[in-house]
Amino acid sequence: MVPLSVLDLAPITSGSTAAESLHRSGDLAQHVERWGYQRFWMAEHHNMTGIASAATAVALAHIGSVTSSIRIGAGGIMLPNHAPLVAAEQFGTLAALYGDRVDLGLGRAPGTDGATLRALRRSFNSADSFPADVQELLSYLDDAQPGAAIRAVPGTGSKVPVWILGSSLFGAQLAASLGLPYAFASHFAPDQLHAALDTYRRSFKPSKYLSEPYAMAVVNVFAADIEADALRMKSSMQLQFVALRQGNPGPLPAPIDDILGVVDPMALAGANHALKYTACGTPSQVHDYLGDFVAATQVDELMLTCHAYDHEARLRSFEIAAEL
Q1: How many other C-beta atoms can be found within 10 angstroms of the C-beta atom of residue 246?
Q2: pLDDT (tens digit, 9 = 90+) per residue, 169-214?
Q3: Residue 296: in which H helix or E strand, if any?
Q4: Low-confidence residues in the chain, pLDDT < 70
Q5: CB count, 10 Å around CB of 157?
Q6: What are the b/e assignments for 120-134, b being 16+ CB within 10 Å?
Q7: DSSP code string of 123-137
Q8: What integer pLDDT is reported at residue 199 of this predicted model?
Q9: What is the pTM of this model?
């Protein structure tokens, strides 16, 4: 198997707080570090009452403080929400604190709704400058150029590895043209997974960052010793996804036994399509699924995410996956 990593959205469960969520993320990071996972990434979302990782760099500072070896990073920072210099300073600061175990994954989506986008002081066309913003950010993390008027302090010379994230062909093309590693968000956007990976590999141009393409994809994992427990764990994510698509985002709800008895079949079908790439079941079922996924995609690394209501069940899910 390829290396395994973790994407954590710091889920705020129904009846809990953001503080509790972030402390659970720290506990999760400590466990997966012991289990041999390579990276622990967190994602930027705003105005989402079920996600506590909006201030991603700050959350990662906490993760870095309670771990010692696992790589920590953003999966990702939505760059149009930030000046490239600010992002370089934030992740340069993380690198100053935690050395050569910091990653910076960049996306161009807002990670929120239109009203919040305006509250972030960005416009709807901010994403148009994403390629240029990425290159500007790369320059701030590189060695200082003679006569440079602007430096990221901390940041300059840190050479924090930058990844391009995507759920379409755009990110694949940009990552290939810049010679950067690429991560595909197949855990919620399955449709263009294979086309994006193919585009990235075919178009890749070697760079000072990478000599050959390096691709990662994200898969949901709900693993338990009994299949019924895994299906029940997954129901929280299904319920939240249905509510989100209906314009009712909220905390991660408690799991239920019979989701078909609660959710409209058409709404559930839509959520299940978005969550197509999900390993759910017993250890053997999950191991078989992940092995088949890697064989089908030929990814260099597999990132797993588990949006589960019960923290102990989430830990067990990642532990089972690590046994692969």
Answers
A1: 11
A2: 999 999 999 999 999 999 999 999 999 999 999 999 999 999 999 9
A3: helix 283-297
A4: 110-112, 124
A5: 15
A6: bebeeebbeebbebb
A7: -TTGGGGHHHHHHHH
A8: 98
A9: 0.96
At residue 124, the pLDDT reads: 67
The CB-based long-range contact list for 228-234 (8 Å cut-off, 24+ gap) reads 229/313, 230/280, 230/281, 230/282, 230/285, 230/286, 230/317, 231/280, 231/281, 232/256, 232/257, 233/306, 233/308, 233/309, 233/310, 233/313, 233/314, 233/317, 234/278, 234/280
* DSSP-assigned beta bridge partners for residue 302: 4, 217
Output DSSP code: residue 252.
Answer: B
Q: Which residues lie below 8 Å from residue 212, measured CB to CB, with a gap of 6+? A: 204, 206
Which of 287, 290, 238 shows the shortest CA–CA distance to 264?
A: 238
Q: Which of 108, 66, 71 is nearest to 91 (CA)?
A: 71
pLDDT tens per residue, range 212-255: 999 999 999 999 999 999 999 999 999 999 998 888 889 999 99
Radius of gyration (C-alpha) of the chain in whole angstroms = 19
